[in-house]
Design a protein that fits this description.
This protein is α+β, with helices and mostly antiparallel strands. It has three domains: 126 residues, Pleckstrin-homology domain (PH domain)/Phosphotyrosine-binding domain (PTB) (PH-domain like, Roll); 93 residues; 34 residues. The protein has nine helices and eight strands. The strands form two sheets. Strands 1-2-3-4 form a four-stranded antiparallel β-sheet, sandwiched between helices. Strands 5-6-8-7 form a four-stranded antiparallel β-sheet. A hairpin with a 5-residue loop joins strand 3 and strand 4. The longest helix is centred in the N-terminal third of the chain and has 27 residues. The chain is rod-shaped.
């Protein structure tokens, strides 16, 4: 690939364009997809649900004298669930909710109503960020490469030549099997392929395996990738053979390969000229 084509490919990758824009000449897409949406968006949805329950509990705390402490206790519980569900924004939102609820219990009269929206703000923030991430992630298997793109504000793009992939493995625990998703690993003999192992949904295992996590119907992806990786390679011809009958057999052989589409017309003509020159 020349420099101009390479620069063009990188610029398209950085723009978040569809998989077809990354193809090189003669390359065909065999499969493309993303991580399972329920997994990527699930935490944001849970955090948002917990934050709404928190708001309902706060409303009961201020308006129901009989059950206000039960409502406050439930509000604190859902805040703890937010902390457990998501270790970054969920942690901040949950701890903020606990602090605000405690403040409300001690001095509720001085509280501004919009402070109780803080946990919901963090829940919605996680949901939006994960939605953007899902829209950017791209897993592609072509007849020449394994392509990966991911990122939120900064897109990262990497591809690995099919010839570097040694095997494809699927891992699907029972709880993932219920929802029809799993992880697909491409063993690459230590080739990293530019993948950041800290990023969710895409990892680089220390042994040299690129991992696509939470892929829908992972066994089908493995089947397609394996079929590409183990496709028969066009035969290599040995030109130093005796003339006569053997040359005729070789001419018949390459003609049969051309008719079956296993070699191109250009390869056929090249081998034919070599055989005729040796006769």
């Amino acid at each position: 690939m020349d420099k101009n084509k390479g620069d063009s490919l990188l610029s398209r990758a950085a723009s978040g364009s569809p998989a077809s824009d990354y193809l090189i000449s003669g390359e065909n897409i065999k499969w493309q997809g993303k991580p399972a949406a329920i997994i990527i968006l699930g935490r944001g949805l849970l955090l948002t649900a917990f934050a709404l329950i928190y708001l309902i509990c706060i409303v009961f705390f201020f308006n129901d004298d009989h059950d206000q402490w039960l409502a406050l206790g439930l509000a604190l519980v859902v805040c703890l669930l937010m902390v457990v569900t998501e270790k970054r924004l969920g942690l901040i939102g949950g701890l903020a909710g606990i602090a605000i609820a405690t403040w409300a219990a001690l001095d509720g009269e001085g509280m501004a109503w919009y402070l109780f929206l803080v946990p919901l703000d963090f829940g919605l923030m996680v949901l939006v960020i994960n939605y953007i991430y899902l829209s950017r992630v791209l897993f592609v298997v072509t007849d020449q490469r394994i392509i990966t793109r991911y990122g939120i504000f900064t897109l990262r793009y990497a591809d690995i030549g099919i010839e570097k992939v040694q095997s494809v493995t699927t891992i699907q625990p029972w709880y993932e099997r219920i929802f029809g998703y799993g992880d697909v690993f491409f063993a690459t003999a230590g080739e990293k392929g530019g993948i950041d192992y800290e990023s969710p949904g895409i990892k680089l295992m220390s042994g040299g395996a690129v991992s696509w996590e939470n892929v829908s119907n992972p066994f089908n992806v493995t089947k397609i990738a394996s079929a590409v990786i183990h496709t028969d390679v066009a035969p290599v011809f040995v030109v130093n053979q005796p003339s006569g009958t053997r040359a005729t057999d070789r001419l018949n052989e390459i003609e049969a390969l051309r008719n079956k589409g296993m070699i191109t017309q250009e390869e056929y003509e090249k081998q034919r000229r070599k055989i005729l020159e040796e006769m």
